Amino acid sequence: MTGLLTTCGSQFRDWTSSYRLFSHNRLPVATIFSVVRRAVLAELPAQAPVCAVLDDTLLRRSGLHTPGVGWRRDPLGPRFQTNFVRAQRFLQTSLALPAPDGSCRVLPVAFRHTPTLPKPSKKATDAERKKYRAEVRAARPQPARLRTDP
Question: To bridge 144 with a disulfide, which of 80, 92, 108, 110 should be the other Cys (CB 3.0-4.6 Å)?
Answer without folding.
Answer: 110
